[in-house]
Automatic annotation (TrEMBL):
Domain of life: Eukaryota
Presence of the UniProt keyword Ligase in the record: no
GO term, biological process aspect, one: methylation
Keywords from the named record: Methyltransferase, Transferase
Keyword Ribosomal protein set for record: no
Species per Swiss-Prot/TrEMBL record: Eutreptiella gymnastica
Gene Ontology molecular function: S-adenosylmethionine-dependent methyltransferase activity; tRNA methyltransferase activity
Official protein name in the record: Methyltransferase type 11 domain-containing protein
Species classification: Eukaryota, Discoba, Euglenozoa, Euglenida, Spirocuta
Length: 178
């Protein structure tokens, strides 16, 4: 049920809005850039939920991305030349302790239950190297965004903060946990 829900209201929505997304989200947030500046040269960086690859900007590290949207991966691989694969953040196809830096920006709030969000977080930690250089940058949507909760459609029988938020470009609903 949860997988079907996320497939329809997250992956399919991102596939539809991918081109608009790519043209409106073309550079990292300042806080993400500041984090990346502190990463040593030659580090191995993965972004889980890389979208169009906008955060994989360092040229002196190995950048890799993964996402569950074919359309966003098209932009990451062809327009930004990011090495990337399609996968689900709940079953990452990487060995334990294999990445020096893991980025996951605005991904986990798209998972439709607390259990699935915890599983996603555990996957991020699993692939992060266990040495002292391992760093995780994680952003999730603030539950305090009342403006989105008011605009969104509440889900039946759900947590009061789980809403479908309209994507302004075409009014197709996207699932977001707030």
């Amino acid at each position: 049920m949860a997988e079907t829900f996320e497939d329809e209201y997250v992956r399919e929505v991102y596939d539809v809005i991918a081109e608009h997304w790519h043209h409106t989200r073309f550079r990292p947030w300042p806080s993400t850039l500041a984090f990346l500046e502190g990463i040593p040269k030659h580090s191995m960086i993965i972004e889980v939920g890389c979208g169009n690859g906008r955060n994989l900007v360092r040229h002196d590290v190995y950048n890799h991305g993964c996402d569950n949207s074919w359309e966003l991966l098209y932009f990451a691989t062809t327009k930004r030349a990011v090495d990337a694969v399609m996968c689900d953040c709940l079953r990452l196809p990487y060995r334990d302790n294999s990445w020096d830096v893991v980025l996951s920006i605005a991904v986990l709030h798209h998972l439709s239950s607390a259990e699935r969000r915890l599983q996603g977080l555990q996957e991020l930690v699993r692939i992060l190297t266990g040495n002292r250089l391992g760093k995780l940058l994680l952003y999730v949507r603030s539950h305090e965004r009342q403006d989105l909760i008011v605009k969104g459609s509440r889900l039946l029988n759900s947590d009061p903060q789980e809403v479908l938020v309209p994507w302004n470009w075409n009014q197709k609903y996207q699932y977001v946990k707030h």
